[in-house]
Batch of 2 targets.
Target 1
Amino acid sequence: MANTRLGMVIDTKRCIGCHTCAMACKVENNLPDKNWWNRVLTIGGEGMDTPEGVWPNLAMSYITLACQHCENPACVKACPVGATYKREEDGVVIQDYDKCIGCRMCLAACPYTGVRVFNWEEPKHQVGFPIGDANVPAHQKHTVEKCTLCAHRLARGEEPACIEACPVRARHFGDFNDPESEVSQLLLKRGHFQLLPEKETNPSVYFLS
Amino acid sequence: MSTQETAAAKAAPAKTASAAGGGKVLLAVTGAIALAGIGLWIYQMSRGLVVTDMRNLSSWGLYITMFMFFVGLSAGGLIIATVPRVFGLKGFKSVSKIAVYLSICCTVLAAAFVVIDLGHPERLWHLIAYANFTSPLMWDIVVITTYLIVSIVYLRATLKAEKGQTSERALKVLSTVALVTAILVHSVTAWIFGLQIGRAFWNTALLAPMFISSALVSGLALTLIVVLILQKTGYLKADPESNSRMAWLLGIFVLVDLFLLFCELLTAGYPLGGQEFNVVASMLTGAFAPMFWTEVGGGILAAVLLLNKKTQASAGLVALAASIAILGIFFKRFQLLLGGFEFSNIDYWSITTGPAKWSDAVLNYVPTLLEWGIVIGVVALGAFMLTLGLNKLALKPAE
């Protein structure tokens, strides 16, 4: 337990489905058109922002979905060249764009639908010039990319952009291996779940319920 | 010398010359189509894989299907050439060299499809430099390379043995190595898919045995078709006895393949719920039903034609049955690949780069014309290699 295990806790009771975290991620990481590393999913009816059930018994909530930074990642095993790897020091699962051969084995291996994106063409940007943080690695055609937990910000001791941007403070960031950390304390106090626990990947993203 | 005799003497070489001429025409046509295919691939690389219908939620398509399909097709030749030698059974001597050469061609095409699907083929050397041996894709690359080398060495040894330069013992050892590699190649190809926990359609222990049985069906069927055509054109001597034994064997393989498919469907479908059940339902009555029932119905029809003594004797009907069997296996491969992407583990509405929620199992992926064009180009390359080999290598049975 010497190493840190960085991750997020997302409060589904607080989340209002405003997509600010998704937008902050897109801008911070200079994501090409059509690419989203973090998305808001409606748990509800047939369509975005629709509730399930019949009035007056309606229910609707949100989860946000990005790379789960699993402790036992399926993608890392599957990559033939080690382009996707888990950092020993903090458990962040990350991509080396220069190594990636574009085989998309990791897209097949990851059970968390839609968290990885492949650049199917030369990355294009709506505004015509790169935005976001200068330390974000350049996006490459025909490589796979996904949430890096804002590795460039972690390197400066900052939190990921989505954490900072959340207007209702539904997102928390920290080290699960540190029992005193905010995220560990939240898991002690509140009911919580991980996504697809039956896949035994042990995600470092928890949702408070 | 009478004029009649002179005419006959002239006619004989003329006939060979026209056959060689036919070969040249075939080489030119298939070569041109293959070149056009390469042109399309260059276009795909420059525009990006966006010109295919593959997207983030259906990230593999026709190319990886063809990869599986051609790995399978390569099985037949090597197996019918090696199994009799390894186990000391009565073999198919007259066709074994052609069968092995056919295997080699199919393996090359399978490898080509992987490269075509790759985003960065210029980084292929990363596979050696940064090899990660926990990846089933890495295993496959090692095994397929070995398989290709072993097949080539085996063919060379067989050709040398005919000149008395290789001992029967050495051939037997090589056959054993080749057979083990062949079994491995199909298993490892299955594990690329079968070991993925995120894909209910793929994640079954039965996948490797099924890949072997499907490979036997499609591989033997292709060998049989090629042999029948070569007998028709006079390249090979007609050998009804060997043909009907091959047909019988193919019929058995088809039945084994159908049995394994049934085992899988029953186990997955019996709970009447869960993702595995959705997969079965989509095959029996959903989006995959047309492919599935063609495969099953065609399989049964092919088995009947191949196992019946009367129909077994008809080259036409055997070729028809073999074609139906190959088509069935192609459908099986295609629905397996598509099925892996058809069901989403996290099935809620959101913004995505494609449909977010598809519980209705509507097919997301339809190959574009460009993808079909590249596939036709690669298949033409195979026909080119086959024609070249038949013309240049001593593949005819030794007298």
Target 2
Amino acid sequence: MDKKKTIVCFCEDITEDEIVSAIKQGFTRPVDIKNYLRPGMGPCQGRGCESQIMRLIRQVTGQSPEFILPLSNRPPITPVPIGVLKAIKKQEGMKR
Amino acid sequence: MKRSAEVVIIGGGVIGCAIAYNLAKERVKVVVLERDYLASGASGRCGALIWAVWYPMETSELMAKVGNMTLNRFANLEEELDTDIEYNLESSISCIKPGEEEGYKNEVRELERYFNTRPEFLKPEEIKKLAPYIGVDNIKSVGGYLRSGTITRASANPFLTVHALANTARRLGATIYTGTEATGIIVVNGKVKGVRTSKGDITTNIVVNAAGAWSADVARLAGIKIPTRPHGEDAVVTEPIMPLPYFPSIWDIYGRQTKSGQILIGDGDFPEQASSYSTEITLGFLPRISTYLLELFPSFGHINIQRHWAGTEDITPDKLPILGKVDELEGLILACGFTGGFCISQAVGEIITDIILEKDKNRDVAEALNLNRFEKKYREFPGRWYK
């Protein structure tokens, strides 16, 4: 398979080749790669690419899987329209 | 790991990396210590706006000097570092709400006087014609100021900026350790002699505290109390949409459209937000910011919010940064207390380098922003100075 054409992150259009070269440059944690190349910052927030990135890190660096931590998800987890979010009523316990 | 350095910088954010780059350019042997990863604190979570008027205060000659320095350096940074940092001159319309006319007049006067920019005044009808997606009637705007293609309103990608500064600094001989925490500062006879890290000691005579929200803790490692505290802020980003020719700005929130087309919006003023290092988001922020967004863009109700995150910045009692030497301890240099630190980072890199190399060019700025401007109540306190 041509690694230059294998898309790992569909949201941000990032290929396997790009991710492997980032790992070789020293971005050896999923969060580092996310910040550098933006996989996992799209609408699916890494649902499609996270495990692939972790696998590539393991393959390139040889790290044990328990040290390769997953990405942090950001609310609202899945995209929600502005108009819907506006309608949320303020409830007790909310800071503001 | 290196065992000695001329300067050790604690903090690998945009400030730490800008200082490292400027020092490395002057052939100073510098080591940067970053506990987590580069730009893991406020640098990687900021709005990355580069504006001339960056503090809610009247611009003085001195602040204008800092402002002009940072704007000009940012404008040339891509060329200087030979890297794409997504530097972008924004076209924006500042929409004036009723009652804000005086404040905007002051801002325009300052822009003309200090930054050589003359924003163009637009009547409400003209805004509607130029940018029909702006909710002029919604916010009862009485007009606006158009700024386009001027370095007084720009933005960049914070991660690319930090990595570009770090990589160039490395190329010039700087050493950057990530995942390495400073655990102590070695002081002998009132002078800094070294830094303890999680991976061994480094001997040095100069330590720069560029630890952002954690600056008070780092200063305390050397037994110095400084009046900075962490302050949480939230921001959201929408899905990518087509490029807006003019981005509206109002005083309540800050925002921009990123290169990929996403709208990034944050709210810079939450006095009620507790002081904490937590980067957990605040639940009530989403409905609140959605209300603002819909007011500003009435037709955007169907556009999705994609991510919501929070970060912590470092604030001081007067909201101005603390730069320069500490009277009580030779060898400790402070570069902290930033709200809007990304914006002035390039000027700070230059100012701190001048202080370390004892050059005169920016002495006036360093003196005005020194720690000794604070009264005793902010320096001698049990525990923390804030509640």
